[in-house]
Design goal:
It contains 6 helices and 13 strands. With 280 residues, it is of the alpha+beta class. The strands form 2 sheets. Strands 2, 4, 5, 8, 9, 10 and 12 form a 7-stranded antiparallel sheet that branches. β6 and β7 form a beta hairpin.
């Protein structure tokens, strides 16, 4: 099909931000930093290579995900520990904050709640920004590597992709069957993963993560949290995933409890104020 005469004019139309976020509630980062300074470590778990771990964080506490042996990305799921129907909503988080998250931005929960589950309070990779390829770190673009897409594309039966890792870990934590656990597994925050979209075809790409041993991403728990973290079979995602080809390393999760007095003046986020009538 040939271009219309006004093709250049149509392409030159300025974009409009779909969800201007200036009116979003602002996290009190100074309060969070002060509370974190006196927080006490209460738990530590390890996501082994090509496996997942689960962890619980008290409301008002913190958790830190760290690279401990080599460059490795992780797929993170979060739920309200008291109500698993309230879980991380990556699509709405992406719409509100953009394709990648960093310090001061939040992981928002699913409808009808739509409130912060966790706030990022520290990111040792916040220096990376966006590179010349359009890549950035900690994405909410990708879903999670899964056995269904792997089978569709290659006919493989691979069981240590992030979807399956998270399903097994959640099944074990809750003491339920894989069939019962799997519907709770959802789109992830790709921790440490460096991704973007190609400029010519708009395809989702990954590249070697800039994460190094000692780097971490740290969160404040706005509600009581259950988390699951998979150490992706893609390793640093420099080549491929959904296989055992890449070098993989563990990821550490540390959980910290805050003294109640350290959060004086803080209130848990309320559920969405929408009345739920949907026009009826």
């Amino acid at each position: 099909m040939s271009e219309p005469e006004d093709a250049a004019l149509r392409r030159a139309v300025a974009p409009v931000i779909c969800y201007p976020n200036e009116t979003l509630p602002k996290p009190d980062m100074a309060l969070y930093r002060a509370a974190r300074a006196g927080a006490k470590k209460i738990d530590e778990v390890l996501a082994s290579p090509r496996e997942a771990c689960t962890f619980e964080v008290p409301q008002g506490g913190f958790f830190r995900i760290s690279s401990v042996e080599g460059p490795q990305v992780g797929d993170l799921n979060l739920w309200n520990r008291q109500d698993l129907s309230e879980r991380f909503y990556s699509g709405k988080t992406r719409a509100l904050h953009g394709t990648h998250l960093t310090t001061g931005e939040r992981m928002w929960s699913s409808f009808p709640h739509l409130r912060p589950l966790a706030t990022i309070v520290a990111d040792t990779l916040d220096w990376y920004g966006m590179d010349a390829f359009g890549g950035a770190v900690h994405d909410v673009i990708g879903t999670r590597c899964d056995p269904y897409t792997g089978n569709l594309l290659s006919g493989a039966q691979y069981h240590h992709c992030c979807h399956s890792n998270l399903t097994r870990a959640l099944s074990d934590h809750l003491g339920v069957s894989l069939t019962e656990a799997e519907p709770h597994v959802h789109d992830v925050l790709n921790v440490f993963m460096c991704t973007g979209f190609t400029r010519d075809t708009g395809q989702y790409f990954m590249k070697a993560s800039p994460v190094r041993v000692g780097d971490y991403l740290e969160f404040f728990a706005e509600v009581p949290l259950l988390g699951a973290l998979s150490a992706c079979p893609g390793g640093d995602c420099s080549s491929e995933h959904t296989s055992d080809v890449s070098a993989c390393y563990p990821l550490r999760v540390e959980v910290f409890e805050t003294a109640p007095e350290a959060l004086e003046g803080w209130a848990p986020p309320a559920r969405s104020g929408y009345d739920g009538s949907h026009g009826r």
